[in-house]
């Protein structure tokens, strides 16, 4: 791949363009917002100049509702040898493109499973897709050349290709991406009118659960509008579980011992099913999640503290598998939770204590 046209210079489009440009591809940028194009170009994502002729690959990175029309318009212009989109919904846009008379053979729907809470070109980074799954949805009509172009694109972005049926993809992302966004927003909405005293008690749990609630509403409205049915199906199943959980919790308030026991059993069932589901989420390097030991270290909010603690762990020969930071409300301090192999935890604890760190249980 020597030339590419990226239409849509938001987070995904600009990140993709940055990755391609850094690997020697001449990238032409287009967007209905000239300011976004100028920003992306200034970041080194490509050139504002239109291509002189057809490029090798046109990448459409616009909201799902506009994907099909954008691809069809590019195809009518003969803008490229192949066309892909990077939208988060796949089945609907393909059917819409067919209805518009688009050439399905030269088109392939794709979806990089990566993003951030922030949007726009200034949030972009060339390593956004490193090691992340990138779904490709070819059909028997898809030209082999276009599939190969898409695979080359994924490789240049250092992502991991995953082949799926388009509608199966939409059901999958409804479960693992779109519904979590709504649930995070629903939970965060409870904080809007909560007592200030309650909000000040917020710990890492509520921060983890509401992190993605900070995403741009309009962006998510565009995504959810393109995949409402599968998301509603998942939410309906969760609503049934919530109803059962509410009944179980109410039963635990009963004066009747048998009702309390039945309620506790219902809540325990939810928690255990949650354990079983969580165990299926891929862990490091895509493997089954490992059972790590946590070493909690008190850390002050001073420049270089995180670097120092990681350097001390490295000097002790310990590989930190994962890390979380729990901030202390109202204090310039927090707990750094270092996740390591269970056999390494005692050595890490001893080494950090020797270097003056305060280890917390």
UniProtKB/TrEMBL annotation:
Ranges for domain ACT: 294-361
Sequence ranges assigned to domain Prephenate/arogenate dehydrogenase in this UniProt record: 1-289
Enzyme Commission number: 1.3.1.12
Keyword Metal-binding: no
Single GO molecular function: prephenate dehydrogenase (NAD+) activity
Pathway: Amino-acid biosynthesis; L-tyrosine biosynthesis; (4-hydroxyphenyl)pyruvate from prephenate (NAD(+) route): step 1/1
Catalytic activity: prephenate + NAD(+) = 3-(4-hydroxyphenyl)pyruvate + CO2 + NADH
Gene3D superfamilies, A to Z: 6-phosphogluconate dehydrogenase C-terminal like domain, NAD(P)-binding Rossmann-like Domain
Annotated SUPFAM superfamilies: 6-phosphogluconate dehydrogenase C-terminal domain-like, ACT-like, NAD(P)-binding Rossmann-fold domains
Domain of life: Bacteria
Family annotation (PROSITE patterns): ACT, PDH_ADH
Class of the enzyme per the UniProt entry, highest EC level: oxidoreductase
Alphabetized UniProt keyword annotations: Amino-acid biosynthesis, Aromatic amino acid biosynthesis, NAD, Oxidoreductase, Tyrosine biosynthesis
InterPro entries recorded: 6-PGluconate_DH-like_C_sf, ACT-like_dom_sf, ACT_dom, NAD(P)-bd_dom_sf, PDH_C, PDH_N, Preph/Arog_dehydrog, Prephen_DH
Family listed: Belongs to the prephenate/arogenate dehydrogenase family.
UniProt xrefs under NCBIfam families: PRK06545.2-1 (NF005109), PRK06545.2-3 (NF005111), PRK06545.2-4 (NF005112)
Name listed for the protein in its UniProt record: Prephenate dehydrogenase
